[in-house]
Design a protein that fits this description.
The protein is an alpha/beta fold. The protein contains 11 helices and 9 strands. The strands form 2 sheets. The chain has a 6-stranded parallel beta sheet with strand order 1-2-3-4-5-6. Strands 7-8-9 form a 3-stranded antiparallel beta sheet.
Length: about 300
């Protein structure tokens, strides 16, 4: 309520529930989220809620709750069958792909919106193209990104994503402009920042601690706390210090598309490890968008 009072022009707020796996604690947060929805609705503020999940947990109660509150999902999927199961296993060693696939079907049946988050690593490089074929064929929105902080072969990534974009271009029914994102590239709405963290967004831990990004949870890089007397947006703006561009990035033709990449995972030259990948792939994405516009 204090944030709304200080910033009366806010009309839309986006909330991401992440973890760990947030659906393991569904009964802990479900009532609090509905209270938030009620508060914002009474102030004529639209609250957009997204759950980042591996989708191994989904029952009728969760489905009904998400339909009622118009909650949508971002689902981690690392490949089809073998490649997903290679990394996404239960404690007993059993893979989770079939469960996730069945739960995606349930989301479709109940008209709950979702997108797929594909993380490219050395574990699944060879299975990415088949996964993208599946997503394109079923007109499923997806995001492709490298595994942050990993030593994944960037030359292999170039080869794989080039093949993926050939598939996208050859499918006249897939809307790349609205159904696909590569990493955090601002292809459509260019920006001097790679993300909204530190500007209009922050990450809040369960104890109220506020971080620049959820990847910092567990660290000492706390910007503030929800119980502080300081305005929430002022606390969030402390994260602006993480955004900076190298001289090379500042002079790059793609500086408002890449914006230096994720500021927490840059190399010693203060630029994204995906730099060479982006320089080769961004023109291809732009060409596909222009091609789709031209053909109507």
């Amino acid at each position: 309520n204090e944030v709304i009072r200080i910033h009366p022009n806010i009309k839309n707020i986006s909330l991401k529930l992440a973890g760990g796996e947030p659906l393991t604690k569904f009964h802990n947060w479900k009532n609090e989220i509905e209270k938030l929805i009620y508060i914002f609705k009474s102030q004529k503020i639209n609250l957009n809620i997204r759950i980042l999940t591996n989708l191994t947990i989904l029952d009728d109660e969760i489905i009904k709750y998400c339909i009622k509150n118009e909650i949508y999902f971002s689902v981690s999927l690392d490949g089809l069958d073998y490649y997903h199961n290679k990394y996404r296993k239960f404690k007993n060693g059993k893979g989770s792909f079939n469960i996730v696939k069945n739960n995606l079907f349930k989301l479709d049946q109940n008209k709950i919106k979702y997108s797929i988050l594909v993380t490219i690593s050395n574990y699944n490089l060879d299975g990415i193209v088949d996964l993208i074929k599946f997503l394109i064929r079923n007109k499923i929105s997806f995001r492709l990104a490298d595994a942050k902080g990993s030593n994944v072969d960037r030359n292999q990534i170039i080869k794989v994503v080039n093949e993926c974009y050939l598939l996208i271009k050859s499918d006249k029914n897939f809307d790349i402009k609205n159904k696909h994102v590569l990493c955090d590239l601002n292809i459509i709405n260019e920006s001097k920042y790679p993300c909204s963290m530190g500007i209009s967004s922050g990450a809040i831990y369960t104890n109220g601690d506020i971080f620049f990004c959820h990847s910092q949870f567990g660290s000492k890089k706390i910007l503030g706390n929800l119980n502080d007397s300081e305005d929430l947006l002022e606390i969030i703006h402390k994260g602006l210090k993480f955004h900076s561009l190298s001289v090379e990035c500042s002079n790059c033709n793609f500086k408002t598309i890449c914006a230096g990449g994720c500021p927490l995972y840059r190399n010693n030259e203060n630029k994204t490890p995906m730099c060479n990948v982006f320089k080769q792939v961004i023109p291809k994405i732009q060409d596909i968008i222009k091609f789709n516009i031209a053909k109507g």
